[in-house]
Specification:
With about 210 residues, this protein is of the alpha+beta class. A hairpin with a 6-residue loop joins strand 3 and strand 4.
Length: about 210
């Protein structure tokens, strides 16, 4: 009987050792797989970071500056341009014609905006008090109704009051259909011309009717 108990005890002890061995082996296997997965994760993360950095560098290289983009867009809409003589090619005023009107633009690759000018497009005689008064009222009305700003300057030597327009707009590669965007902005200048001429004509008619 004693021998049976001895054999059973040995079997139990061996079972316990075997169970412990299996658990340790399984845990070692789990730890090994965890290490492998962690290594794979780190490698994948590193590759993604490298790819992201490469894409960022590529985008930086491909991104065109505001001035270069504007000159490129001018050619797309069929406008030849010239740089102000004697000025820095990279910063000088850009002159071009569009639908019979002459524009000047200041643009730089260092900024995201361009300034558009339409100067001396209209005038009245300085000493024509009535016409000068009509012009000032028409300019005020245009500035209320239109996005392009209109101002006047006085040329005492020539006895003239000259009319000018200006706008400042964002001009970056992210703008879709940027050539259409530029055409639309330039068309606003012609709208201003029309507004001021119509308003002055209205004032003359009202004066005649009094």
């Amino acid at each position: 009987m004693m021998e049976v108990f001895t054999v059973l005890a040995i079997v139990v002890v061996l079972g316990l050792f075997a169970n412990k061995y299996m658990k340790e082996r399984d845990q070692a296997h789990i730890n090994e797989r965890a290490d492998v997965n962690a290594d794979l994760y780190d490698r994948a993360k590193e590759e993604l970071e490298k790819e992201s950095n490469m894409n960022t560098d590529t985008n930086k290289d491909e991104k065109i500056g505001t001035r270069d983009l504007f000159l490129e867009t001018l050619l797309k809409i069929g406008c030849q341009y010239e740089i102000e003589e004697g000025e820095d090619v990279e910063e000088g005023d850009i002159r071009f014609g569009y639908q019979g009107e002459y524009f000047v633009v200041r643009a730089s690759n260092k900024t995201r905006y361009i300034q558009i000018y339409d100067t001396h497009w209209g005038h009245v005689e300085l000493y024509d008090i009535d016409e000068f008064a009509r012009l000032k009222k028409a300019i005020n009305e245009s500035n209320i109704r239109n996005s392009v700003t209109t101002v006047y300057t006085i040329d005492e030597a020539g006895s003239n009051v000259d009319v000018h327009c200006k706008s400042v707009i964002l001009f970056v590669p992210e703008i879709p259909n940027i050539d259409a965007y530029l055409r639309l902005e330039l068309s606003e200048y012609f709208r201003v011309h029309e507004t001021i001429n119509i308003e002055m004509a209205k004032q003359r008619e009202l004066e005649v009717g009094k």
